[in-house]
Amino acid sequence: xxxxxxxxxxxxxxxxxxxxxxxxxxxxxxxxxxxxxxxxxxxxxxxxxxxxxxxxxxxxxxxxxxxxxxxxxxxxxxxxxxxxxxxxxxxxxxxxxxxxxxxxxxxxxxxxxxxxxxxxxxxxxxxxxxxxxxxxxxxxxxxxxxxxxxxxxxxxxxxxxxxxxxxxxxxxxxxxxxxxxxxxxxxxxxxxxxxxxxxxxxxxxxxxxxxxxxxxxxxxxxxxxxxxxxxxxxxxxxxxxxxxxxxxxxxxxxxxxxxxxxxxxxxxxxxxxxxxxxxxxxxxxxxxxxxxxxxxxxxxxxxxxxxxxxxxxxxxxxxxxxxxxxxxxxxxxxxxxxxxxxxxxxxxxxxxxxxxxxxxxxxxxxxxxxxxxx
Length: 374
Hints:
Blueprint: E1 4-7, H1 10-18, H2 30-34, E2 39-46, E3 52-62, E4 69-73, H3 86-100, E5 103-108, E6 113-117, H4 119-127, E7 141-142, H5 144-155, E8 159-161, E9 176-181, H6 187-192, H7 196-208, E10 211-215, H8 220-234, H9 241-254, E11 259-266, E12 269-279, E13 282-290, H10 299-313, E14 318-323, H11 335-343, E15 347-351, E16 354-358, H12 361-373
Protein name: Peptidoglycan bridge formation glycyltransferase FemA/FemB family protein
GO molecular function: aminoacyltransferase activity
Keywords: Acyltransferase, Cell shape, Cell wall biogenesis/degradation, Peptidoglycan synthesis, Transferase
């Protein structure tokens, strides 16, 4: 019997997420306030007894000049993805609800892990000239149930999409991430999992007198100055300062530890800064920024180590470094970032990626054409 899907209150949504070990920071109500160009809705799945058994944050983006929407559930929804009747009982009622809200297309990101590669497996793959991508290397573990879910989605009309940027309609989250497992490990265990370079750099920063402090809303302009310098150096388009101010206000109002800001100081100079997000037992390193000055005192390693220790103290089961490249070729400028994250003891993790369901094929095709021209 299909579940009943309807709008729920913010309080119902938060209570449901609080009862779970993990949910994406993009699947809590406050994330809708971070994205003012999208209309947000908290969605609930109810069983025949009226119990709330699933929840999701839907972001609706209007199609130019039409009252029709792209409905997006980033890294969600939070439902029983392994249910044998996933499509009929969980997803079909969701599609019917979203269609009733004017959606012409639905995009979602199942929070389901398909494969994992240990730090050693990633290091060996980078050194192997025959391995050009992560999938060329033997995974440490492969979840058959996740591959079965992907098959069921394809058979029911869902289409897997490649990750994109977040500008306009090209909403997309990384399919490959790097995560450090914390469950059942002490800080000493986690420190032993760092590679030699990491341990050496943390010691060097401590000896040089680098101090890591937690900042607040008033420190966001300092973070932003470093972030803008990082964007120019690494050739990406930075988000504006008001985005981070809105993010801080919305997330910390929902929970005081939902978002933290860390700053690395040395002799009165701020050399690096980063934001950290927490939902339940999952902690994310979200945005990082640093200056090119005084790199020799290793502020980034020191800051990340402090964030990892604090995440462990908060009860984290996983410390998530977010997106990584799946390309292992030396010519890829993102390979250094992969090495940095894996050096912290991080596993490479592949999720099922993002999936589209065109409710109106004509409008969905028009959106594809619109995006191709941009």
